[in-house]
Amino acid sequence: MGDTLLITTPATATAKRNRSDEETETKKKLMQPSLHTSDPAAAIASVRHEFGEHGGVNMSIEPSVTFTVMEPDTMRRMFAGEVGPDQDFYVYSRHFNPTVLNLSRLMAALEGTEAAYCTASGMSAISAALLQLVNTGEHVVASSSVYGGTHALLNHFLPRTSNITTTFVNISDIEKVNEAIVEGKTKVLYFESVSNPTLTVANIPELSRVAHRKGVTVVVDNTFTPMVISPTRLGADVVVHSISKFVSGGADIIAGAVCGSASLVNSMMDLHQGAIMLLGPTMNPKIAFELSERIPHLGIRMKEHSNRALAFSTRLKKLGLKVIYPGLEDHPNHELLKSIHNKEYGYGGIICIDMGTEERANKLMSYLQNYGQFGFMAVSLGYYETLMSCSGSSTSSELSSKEKALAGISPGLVRMSIGYIGTLEQKWSQLEKAIIRLQECGFANKN
Length: 447
Fold this sequence. Notes:
The protein is α/β, with parallel strands linked by helices. It has two domains: 97-296, Aspartate Aminotransferase, domain 2, CATH 3.40.640; 298-440, Aspartate Aminotransferase, domain 1 (Alpha-Beta Complex). 39% of the residues lie in helices and 13% in strands. The chain is built from 17 helices and twelve strands. Strand 4 (186-192), helix 9 and strand 5 form a beta-alpha-beta unit. Helix 5 (98-111) packs parallel to helix 12.
């Protein structure tokens, strides 16, 4: 299977056979995402829109599990890798599905990569990427501050099942990262663009240079900052996503994606050695269709998430709260983020408020939800309503107390995914009302 397999058009085999070769090649060129533009929205817009089967403005959903062939020998050729989706030949939807492939092209355009493929969840994307890149007995260097599920995968599951070990380091200490990489054994440097939940910004260009000098692949989780940061344009090799979050935006879909070189993504779909193909975290084509309809307005949503996050964090600081947001000038990584982000999309939609203790954190969230009607106590992020959780006792609960301390996760750290419903002033009024009431009761700590 060729390396352009994942970026060419997934038209039906019947339609392909009825088109001229010239028409097919023209459409393929139109379907390929631009790898040269620095604006993710422009890259997404450069991907040719896939029409429905009867010319509808929306693409058709291909729900078939299995696909027909016109000639008996074609099936042998497909399993031998002689023909494939790049020529509109499909075998089985656990392998490639036309609708999922369309979403994957959009994700590749979003991240500026040659290819991508989408999976059933963010964790399946992370797991499949690591298992494809790292063999038994090999090593990973990872940020000490990552999502709790990722930490559990690296710290507990992979050592037990695959003899893959991980050294966790402060990703901001470039020298420590360099020292942790064991040349010849370390295969992946893994971190998040902006860490969950501490909002530490990774110096992607410098980390990539350090890793590449020692032949290490850089894998970046960009779930917190789609559109805002473009890791591969800064030197990273692979980008993983939980599409369930900002890309979906509706808190109603579980999905993931791996974005990288065509050779990597094709290897993950290999019939004999592919982690996605053989582990089977298959995305439902109906889900792929829904997500394909949401990506075109992701840029608009991210701008408003970021706009409100900056406005609220600035005003909350004036009320005396300890606010962590990389868009604030006093954040230790503000200048770094300012130098690497796509400025038209702001600084991201996540802020943190450190209340010091879990009791104070819980009181804050209770007031915000039940008194101010500002948001919901719930995990996850990227929803149009504000979602908030106390990270240490929820999404980072997989870490031990010592690991939380090393990661900088305070017991009272409240992570807030800022929504965009209503007007900014309306939502600020609700937020301010709850904070003032909390301060009057003596619970809100001062900065």
